[in-house]
Amino acid sequence: MKTKFLLIGTCIITLSFFISCNSDEKTNDGSTAKITNDEIVANSKIDASVEDVTNIAEDQFSSQLNVNSKPSGPIKNYLPSCATITTVLTNNTWTKTVDFGVEGCTLNNGNTVKGKMVVSFSNDFTSSTQTISYTFEGFYHNGKKIQGSKSIIRTIKETSLLVTPHPVSTAAIDLTITFDDGKVYSRKGTLVKEMTSGYDTWFDWDDNVFVVTGSGSTTFPNGDTFSAEITTPLEFNASCRKSIAVKGIVSITKNGASATIDYGNGECDTLAKVTKDGVTEEVDLKK
Fold first, then answer.
1. Are 247 and 241 spatial neighbours (Cβ–Cβ below 8 Å)?
2. What are phi and psi of 149, to 5 degrees?
3. CA 116, CA 137: separation in Å to the nearest integer?
4. What SS3 class is residue 62?
5. Contact between residue 275 and residue 251 where contact means Cβ atoms under 8 Å apart
């Protein structure tokens, strides 16, 4: 009988140790410390939404800025022909309502949007600095509902990346994103986006190249917060027709865990190298 009690006691101690080791993977509030690839992909989908809505707003500003200009070649717009644009000038402020309809439209990068974006900015195009604001009305990006507001400070200036004066946009982000499964995420941050190529051919979106720096945070449905910082500037090439960077590195931290995302060397794909705990693997971020 004593032998049986000893055996049972040993099993209990072993089981308790196993449970203790497993519980170390969680924080005191029950959230998971480990960064998963599924979380990285979900975060990337939010990145794609932010990228597209920023491009829509800036495209509407540029089109109004150059409304009387005559292009030297065929016009390659960012917006699809199914988008309906209503333009109103009131008290020296342009308001452009971009309606993608209830059925939705497909952008040239393959992402789908529906609902409305309302973009506004000053009529004073002589100023080197402009504020572009926009809001959403029943707006969805790839099935995710986008709510909140965003402002972009657009300036023409020289930078360390390019000495020729070019558009530099600083975007303040404060958005709520509801995925099609009902899970709600929030994104806050600041991004600086420089157009390093294509700024002198406004009528051809495909030759645009953007370089992005900045940082932000994403709060997941379970309360976990991803803090992301661009450690090597991200490059977006419009000719790739992707809302995912083709170059650059982002560092992510969550509850003490960390990971880096390397977007590659310029290939037009949706792949990235993710490094966690010294182990690197290739992940398809998709759209």
1. no
2. -145, 160
3. 5
4. helix
5. no
Task: Give the residue from 269, 227, 214, 216 showing the smallest Cα distance to 245.
Answer: 269
Read off the pLDDT band of 200 (50, 70, 90).
Answer: confident
- Is the CB of residue 243 less than 8 Å from the CB of residue 52? yes
Q: What are φ and ψ of residue 228, in 5° steps?
A: -120, 140
Distance CA 72, CA 204 (A): 10
Element (H, E) at 221: none
DSSP for 231-272, written as a single string: EEEEEEEGGG--SS-SEEEEEEEETTEEEEEEEEES-SSSEE
Q: Please give the model's pTM, rounded to 2 decimal places.
A: 0.86
Q: Are 116 and 84 in contact (CB under 8 A)?
A: no
- What tokens does 220 get? 């997941």
213-232: burial string, b at 16+ Cβ within 10 Å, e else: bbebbbebeeebebebebee
- Residue found by looking up tokens 């986006």 in the block: 193
For residues 100, 105, 111, 115, the Cα torsion angle rounded to the nearest 10 degrees is: 30
**131: three-class secondary structure by DSSP:** strand
**What would the 3-class secondary structure string for 82-118 be?**
CCEEEEEEECCEEEEEEECCCCCEECCCCCEEEEEEE
Asked whether 41 and 285 are in contact (CB, 8 A), the reply is yes
d(CA 229, CA 191): 10
pLDDT tens per residue across span 67-115: 867 666 666 778 999 999 999 999 999 999 999 999 999 999 999 999 9
pLDDT confidence tier of residue 66, bands split at 50, 70 and 90: confident
- Decide the pairing of beta strands 112-122 and 93-99: antiparallel
